[in-house]
Design brief:
By secondary structure, this protein is of the alpha/beta class. It is about 45% helix and about 10% strand. β3, α3 and β4 form a beta-alpha-beta unit.
């Protein structure tokens, strides 16, 4: 069972990852999200081993990078990630990007994930950053419906059409940048953390804007994976289970959608621009 709230390590430096994940596990997180492309799977593995928690107490999620697409390459990508994480079985393995320029390779990589799933080497498989057209093609040409599509979702960019497609097929929407951190880097708009509507809801509940946004995801049945390396933020982001947003408050946050993506367009992720070798374990 995938916990509603996970802990992300995107852009967390490798030498800080073990410390951050250790703190997250101490606070109570039991779902850790990483990726081969982040370069910090080893740090996640170190924290898992140091935690003293049984393997089945922590849900471990990682992603294969586009450089390891294709059937055989994806099988080897799994081996690299599992070795760095120090696990025999990965709980959830995703394809990190659709690689739209060479989607046949993407499909072959997904078929490798299907084989890993059949062999019990992964407990669930899924995708990340797949838009409706590519997700529909994947569903048509493969056998196992992705358990998850991890996509950019925050109050300013909600991807309703894609979320509806997920609901139709029983795919869980998992939000990266769930509190809109990406809006801070994108520029040109007010950060979600400074939004007046979110701020007012936060004041009513005695919570922070970040906590309100994470609660919004939870109540709308999305998985969310906030990231931080600051202990007080790690704890704050986990403290969302003692209050509830009203239907009116949820609707007010829903109404903040601008339809403007802050992260990269998935079609822009090409081998030429983003291809990089993923090191061996």
């Amino acid at each position: 069972m995938l916990p509603a709230l996970g802990f992300g390590v995107f852009q967390t430096p490798p030498d800080e990852t073990a410390t951050a994940v250790t703190e997250a596990l101490r606070v109570g997180y039991r779902h850790i999200d990483t990726a081969a492309a982040y370069g910090n799977e080893n740090g996640v593995g170190d924290a898992l081993r140091a935690s003293g928690l049984a393997r089945d107490e922590v849900f471990v999620e990682t992603k294969l990078w586009i450089s390891d697409y294709g059937y055989d390459a994806a099988l080897h990508g799994f081996e690299k990630s599992a070795a760095k994480l120090g696990v025999d079985q990965i709980d959830l393995l995703l394809l990190h990007q659709p690689l739209t320029e060479s989607f046949d390779r993407t499909l072959d990589a997904y078929r490798a994930l299907e084989q890993l799933y059949a062999d019990g080497k992964v407990r669930a498989i899924g995708v990340s950053n797949f838009m409706p057209d590519k997700l529909t093609r994947l569903l048509t040409e493969t056998d196992v419906v992705p358990a998850v599509n991890q996509i950019e979702v925050h109050p300013y960019f909600q991807q309703h059409e894609l979320q509806a497609l997920h609901a139709e097929h029983g795919i869980l929407t998992q939000a990266w940048s769930p509190i809109g951190g990406i809006t801070i880097y994108g520029g040109g708009q007010q950060s979600t953390l400074d939004n007046e509507t979110i701020g007012e809801i936060a004041r009513v509940h005695g919570k922070s804007p970040a906590q309100v946004m994470l609660r919004w995801h939870a109540q709308e049945s999305r998985s969310a994976i906030p990231k931080s390396v600051k202990p007080h933020r790690i704890a704050e982001n986990f403290d969302i289970f003692d209050f509830e947003l009203s239907a009116e408050e949820l609707a007010a946050i829903d109404a903040l959608d601008t339809g403007v993506r802050s992260g990269p367009d998935p079609d822009s992720i090409t081998m030429e621009n983003y291809g990089m070798p993923i090191p061996e374990a």
